Amino acid sequence: MGIKADLVKSQMQHQNAKSIHRDHQDFLGNQIHYQNSNMEQLQGPSNQSSFLAQGPALENHNWAMEFHQEQGIAPPTLDHEFDTIYTRGAQQLQSNWESEFHSQQPVHHQWSAEFNSQTHKNQNAAWNEEFNSYIGKGKGKEVDAQWEAEFQKLQIKDQNWQDEFQKFQQENQGLETQDWNEMFKEIWETSKGDTSNWMNDFENFNNDTYEELLEADPVLAPCAEYIFEKSNPYLTHPDPYAAGLELLKSQGSLSNAALAFEAAVQRDMHNDSAWMRLGTVQAENEKELPAIAALQRSVQENPQNLDALIALAVSYINEGQERESLASLERWLRTSYPDLNMPPAQPGQDLQQRLLDFFIQALQKVPLTTVDANLQIGLGLLLYNSKEYEKTVDCFTAALSVRPDDYLLWNRLGATLSNSGNSEAAIDAYDRALQLKPSFVRGRYNLGVSCMNIGCYREAAEHLLGALALQTPDTADEQKNVSTTLWDTLRRTFVMVFI
Fold first, then answer.
1. What is the phi/psi pair of residue 200, to 5°?
2. pTM of the predicted protein model
3. Over the range 289-321, which residues count as b (16 or more CB within 10 Å of their CB) and which as e?
């Protein structure tokens, strides 16, 4: 339910001119980008000695030379020896092969004669009789006649096409390439307006119509499936919902609390409070997708659940789902302030500005001496959605003036400060959030990212390792709902420490 810190776009020197770069990320998300140099291994060609260039061949040749000298005979060359042996062997092989081949000739002639007699006598005659009998049937003749008529029609059509093409050639015989270009240009200019309109319609369909076909309201949209952990010791607990609340009160493990609330909703799938608790715990535990699935189920069971609606809006912002976040904020505002005049959106209307007007309308109903913390939080989320960070800071600061012990608000303030480029102030806000709730995994993760932003990589690694330790449940079995965000960020931190 907290807000993740983003990476600021700055370069901080650390040790040997180490640097880290930041790209803008969503409301709760953090992403560190770094560059790894690629090492290329070049291998030269291997030198392999030729087997024929050395060894016994040279020794045998020297022995033959000595032998011929002792016998008083002029030694023949290696080429001469090879030619003699090869010619003698080839002649012998050829003679043997010819004899064997001719001995088989009678068999070959017998087989050919037998084959020809059987083919002409039986098979060919049988095939002719079968073909003639088929053609002689009345149905076969009708098909043949119909095929000839259709073929003649095709010939006539083909002749007509040839006549039209020749006529076109005669009419345009004098046209050169330039004339063809001018003709095409004229046709293009004539139809350009229609093409432009078609392209505009296509773009409008992609940008507006298609999105309108997808329901953004979390109460009406299809609900994402929540994946339950297989190993859950709270499934046999007499009151898992109460056990989860006790874990939250005693600053216990968020992962264990999530297991308790999972057991509670499996016992009663229509318990919107249990679904809401499960979703907020998963968000605080840096597991956004399971949080969205649980929170959406909560608002579908009870559309009046304001805590679930505001938490769901935050999670949608984290995942970059702008339309869904705006729809959640609008439903929250309608439910919180039913007296507001909020007509439905018109096609092509700016949804962000429309909802901002509704929030301003609600603020005007609040007395000047009163701070509506919930309204300030909702307005702050809306402004953050449009990257108006300074105004967002004002909203969260106003809400903290009446709710100073809200650790989620301190975390959201820190994330906004970090995204606006003030990492030092963001660290102070995260520290305050962790003082209020030491088991807050997302707050500790955001603190580690802000430390990275100012070049304190070792401190960042310590905070990230602490967040991973808090995220690990008591069960030893493999978890289904696993977030890779912490591990990915920790790996990048180690890279920055040791480069």
1. -65, -45
2. 0.61
3. bbbbbbbbbbbbbbbebbbbbbbbbbbbbbbeb
Question: In the beta sheet, which residues pair with residue 18?
Answer: 14
Name beta bridge partners: 22: 32
Within a 13 Å sphere around the CA of 332, how many CA atoms are in the beta-carbon half?
25
d(CA 414, CA 132): 95
Report pLDDT digits (tens) over 475-484.
656 777 777 8
In the chain, the amino acid numbered 284 is: E
CA 495 to chain centroid, in Å, comes to 25
3-state SS, 265-331, equals HHHCCCCHHHHHHHHHHHHHCCCHHHHHHHHHHHHHHCCCCHHHHHHHHHHHHHCCCHHHHHHHHHH
What does the alpha-carbon distance between residue 460 and residue 494 come to, in Å, rounded to a whole number? 9
CA atoms within 13 A on the CB side of 209: 7
Rounded to whole angstroms, the Cα distance separating 322 from 316 reads 7
Contact 441, 285 (CB under 8 A): yes
The residue among 286, 310, 314, 285 whose CA lies nearest residue 298 is 310
**Which residues 6+ apart lie within 8 Å of 374 measured at CB?**
306, 310, 336, 399
**CB 246, CB 264: distance < 8 Å:** no
pLDDT in tens, 403-449: 999 999 999 999 999 999 999 999 999 999 999 999 999 999 999 99
Residue count (the chain): 499
